[in-house]
């Protein structure tokens, strides 16, 4: 499938601001699941963009605007083709929990069994994970049970949380949005020593208005497998991966600092259309 994705972020400030330094995580990498045909990003006021790859191989663009400005607009356009990939069957039983330590031999796996900014590994989280997966010994089946638990345990409610909400608050209130569902699943998997990473991307539907978030878990002998607890499914060709990290803090689409008023309004618009 080919997708044309336009992403616009706009900041309006109550008074002019200056010395704005920003990072963007909007450009996906090409891999077995997707081929990036073109990517372009521009800012208003205009600025020279530079780029580098971070520790997790994500593409980071950065720029600065030192002169005073009352608004900042960032527009990116992406043309990408997604590919069908061979996924583990839902009834597959590839490896038992007795081999879970082998997961640490996987690429980048160690970072993804630890607590992170928005993910807890408390005894309470461990208890939830154990109760949700009792009598199951296969690692893949355990992760599927945890995904189904998160999907049924939490209520999806727009604007019920913000991007800095910790998974503790989500479990207390039992509601949230996609990044909250992902954070809770990460915590449950990691308490059982199953590596789990956070994925930032797009769910390519005409209703999309923002980025989406899901998870990948590492299965020894198989590799990384995607799970979307918000929709209780495995990602397919309608998913476009931008970047990965330990949690949302590693992959915000736009982040930065500036000098001036704290009163500002941010609007985000994502438009996704099917390509030819």
In short, what is this structure?
Helix content is 17%, strand content 39%. The chain is globular, with a radius of gyration of 19 Å.
Question: Can you describe this structure?
Answer:
By secondary structure, the protein is α+β, with helices and mostly antiparallel strands. It has two domains: 2-83 and 252-274, Immunoglobulin-like; 97-250, C8orf32 fold (Roll). The protein is 17% helix and 39% strand. The chain contains four helices and 13 strands. The strands form three sheets. Strands 1, 2, 3, 4, 5, 12 and 13 form a seven-stranded antiparallel β-sheet that branches. The radius of gyration is 19 Å and the shape is globular. The mean pLDDT is 95.
List the helices and strands and how they pair.
Elements (H helix, E strand, L loop, with lengths): L1 E23 L9 E11 L5 E4 L5 E7 L3 E14 L40 H10 L6 H15 L1 E2 L10 H7 L1 E2 L1 H14 L4 E8 L8 E8 L3 E5 L11 E7 L8 E6 L4 E11 L2
Parallel strand pairs: 6-7
Antiparallel strand pairs: 1-4, 1-5, 1-12, 1-13, 2-5, 3-4, 8-9, 8-11, 9-10
Helix pairs in contact: 1-4, 2-4, 3-4
User: The CATH topology of the largest domain is what?
Assistant: C8orf32 fold
Number of domains: 2
Percentage beta strand: 35-45%
Please give the share of residues in helix.
10-25%
Q: Low-confidence runs (pLDDT<50, min 5 residues)?
A: none
Mean pLDDT: 95
The SSE order reads EEEEEHHEHEHEEEEEE
Structural class: alpha+beta
Give the tally of β-strands: 13
Radius of gyration: 19 Å
The largest sheet is: 7 strands, antiparallel
Distance between the termini: 8 Å
Number of helix segments? Answer: 4
Assigned CATH architecture of the largest domain: Roll
Shape: globular
CATH class of the largest domain: Alpha Beta
